[in-house]
Amino acid sequence: MRTIEKSKFSFSSLLLVLLFVILAALMLFPLYALFLASLKPATELFRYGLNVRLDFNLMSLDNYKSIFSGQGAAGNYFGWYKNSLLITTLFTLLSLLFSSMVGYGLGMYRFRGRNFIFTLVLVVMMIPVEIILLPLYKLMISLKLINTIWGVILPFVVSPLPIFFFRQFALGLPKDFMDAGRMDGCSEYGIFFRIMVPLMAPAFGAITILQAMNSWNNFLWPLIVLRTTEQFTLPIGLASFVSPLGNNYEALIAGAVLAILPILVLFLFFQRFFMEGLTVGGVKG
């Protein structure tokens, strides 16, 4: 019986591994096709579209050389890259700081109006961003933040999803640590930063990836706020390669490949926290 059970378990495990290998291949296929396209001239893209044909006679690093040399339309590419890195870094750090404090406060402290505030967070979460773009734009004009990185960062630095996530995670933390910190003379801010933040590391890891990815890929709001080419973020800059005045698909595809690298590195760095943070934060309540 044990041999039969072992064989069934091994067979089911093999099927599960095979399924995930197939899913991983399907997910990686577009990236592989994009990378191959970045090594070919644009004429091949027009002729065959994105494909996985290996033609070493056509493949070269010329597209990447044009970006690194700053030739033609790709002259501002690394300026856009720097803008996106700066905005993403500041946005993610500020979002982690303020959203974690709000979520922690809603989850660990009991005060009048707590449930009402949390209900407002849920209501805001259900409002499409497009509805509030015009009021936000008028607000940025009033604050004179048009065409600045702070005009891109500040309106969404405290968003409802991270607050909800941190609140759910905080509900699962033992309050005994707070009482122990108070007995040792630690302030409420000290309890949060010295005791609770390390315990919330999985939540911080998961939200870091989500918020950084949202900021890095954000296109609509920076397009509305930013005016000059020098202030563009990477998504807007890449979109400018395709215009009625001319198309530069070689730089567009090669630039898109390079644009994947920061988020890929970030995910590899925080991946051990990501699944734990999502599963634990999603079931507490």
Automatic annotation (TrEMBL):
Q: Which residues cross the membrane?
A: 12-35, 85-104, 116-137, 149-170, 191-213, 251-270
Keyword check for Kinase, yes or no.
no
* Cellular localization per UniProt: Cell membrane
All copies of domain ABC transmembrane type-1, residue ranges = 81-270
| A Pfam family of this chain | BPD_transp_1
Which top-level group of life is the source organism from?
A: Bacteria
User: Is Transport included in the keywords of this UniProt record?
Assistant: yes
Q: Which PROSITE patterns match?
A: ABC_TM1
Entry protein name:
Arabinose transporter permease
User: Hey, which family's this protein in?
Assistant: Belongs to the binding-protein-dependent transport system permease family.
Keyword annotations? Cell membrane, Membrane, Transmembrane, Transmembrane helix, Transport
Q: How does the record classify its membrane topology?
A: Multi-pass membrane protein
